[in-house]
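#struct-queue
[09:14] JT: dropping the first one here, sequence first, then the structure tokens:
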Amino acid sequence: MRVDLSPATKSHYLRILKTGTFYRFDNIKIKKIKKFHIVEYFSEEKKEERKNLGNKYNVLKSIFSKASEWELIKENPMIGVKEPYVEPRQKALQFYDANQLSIMLEAIKSLNLKYRVIYKLAALVGLRESEIAAIH
């Protein structure tokens, strides 16, 4: 049987599975998992304010889609299960004040030129961590 998952997708799925994300399904054979198990799982996750429900939903959707495609299950229990909506969390933005910026600029003077440029650029234009990582 050929598995059509990209290496990145496979790695992402394995990482999620190894975290115990789907502990609720550990003792249930895949053929026995029904829609109400999944709805109940997401209800509990939402009630406990767990993170990444969208990712968890997509992983389960993909797993059951493949299981159905490979004829491991007769019916895909994810069909008709709506993706759980969670109100986005609002983080308060934090900025350096003039004193903190001065201290940071002094501290980076001993760094390699490449890193000084990255820090200064981040401070001047307000880059996010992911944008800084992309420069690196």
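[09:21] JT: and here's the second one, same format:
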Amino acid sequence: MQEISIKNTKDKFSLDELSKINLILDSHEYIGKYVKENIDIAVYNLGYLPKGDKKIVTNYKKVIKSLDVLLEKLNLNGRVFITFYPGHPSGLEEAIHIEKYLRELNQKEFEIIKFDFINQKNNPPFLIVLEKIK
């Protein structure tokens, strides 16, 4: 996450709305350092920050590392939403590797659905929703 992302979030929401949210400037891979309890939901918006530095992108290895930790902390019927942007080289690489990782998860433990923009041209974004079922 870039510092501008935290600033934009603070500018958009009231202090009351933000009182229950921790904004963290760190890599996905360190999620275990911040999330100690089990969770019901997680959201990943991968790639680069719109209007931000396009040289700063998420890294599939770090995302997978965080998913390893996160899936252990995900409650039964908990969900993970992951948005991919394969329209740039690192986004495509990320989508390929993370989707491969997700395909290898045990289907008796996780249900995974992929949503596409089927009528959009030029490498549209897509969403994967993972639910822990066992």
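[09:30] RK: nice, looked through the second one.
[09:31] RK: The beta strands are 39-45, 74-84, 110-116, 126-132.
[09:31] JT: good to know. The longest helix spans residues 89-103.
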